[in-house]
Amino acid sequence: MTAFKGAFTALITPMKENYEVDFDGFRRLIRFQLENGIDGLVPIGTTGETPALEENEEERLLKIVIEETAGSVPVIAGTGSNSTKHAILYTKRAKDLGADAALVVTPYYNKPNDDGLIRHFEEVAGVGLPIIIYNIASRTGRNIPTPLMEKLARIPNIVGVKEASGDINQMGDVISSIKMAGPASPASPDGGFTVLSGDDALTLPLLSLGGDGVISVVSNLLPGKVAALVKAGLAGDFEKARSIHYELLPFVKAAFIETNPVPIKRALEFAGLPAGPTRLPLGRISDANDKIVREAVKVVWKR
Hints:
Elements: E1 6-10, H1 23-35, E2 40-42, H2 55-69, E3 76-78, H3 84-97, E4 101-105, H4 114-125, E5 131-135, H5 137-140, H6 146-153, E6 158-163, H7 168-177, E7 194-197, H8 203-208, E8 213-216, H9 223-234, H10 238-255, H11 262-270, H12 287-300
Parallel strand pairs: 1-2, 1-8, 3-4, 4-5, 5-6, 6-7, 7-8
Helix pairs in contact: 1-2, 3-4, 9-10, 10-12, 11-12
């Protein structure tokens, strides 16, 4: 089994000015990530604008990632949906194409109860691909509290969580009561449970509590720096990790000044990397925030 530990980039989907997907640009971004030491890639997720992508576009993007990585780093495909049927189909597609795992978000808008959530993840995990749950109440309207996460962690093939609750206390509870309590899922790479930060600003605190890394947005531009922060934290070198954290923090704030991925795509444009516009309903960044992102890029981008 692949070990899901380290710095993983939640890849953007670059667009041309006519809003068609820039597949060649996407290949360039993947190569940029690999050349700069990223530990894994997460295509066709929220940062990749999947709500606005066609299924054939998603499939082609996933094929490109798997082709370009060629097994060199883990690929965790976004396969979530608020339809259990669709989430199963997307997860089967990811498995058939060769993804190493699936990132499955809490069903959004429906706001399922506990029984519905358990049954949803049981059905998706039944596909046989390792599943990382994506807990982000700010986008789904439904938080997964720790007692419920404990039940989900016992489902075969549920191997971890991308924790984006924004609550460091909850994140610590997940680590102490599931990850550190012993084997939670027999399908986990180490017989345990992976806890990844879903918030760049909380990567360092999560690592200090015993977390395993981050699924990062800012690593679209700075894969080497984010990977170095996580590597230092995992090695217990928190002096170095803290130094990198504070170096990155102004850019992290700028990258989330508006709805993701609007600012990070603009940052990539300023750096001369493929990005392009976001598809509607995500609009253009405001002029004031555009200046903030531009200035933040100038500080951290040294190519």
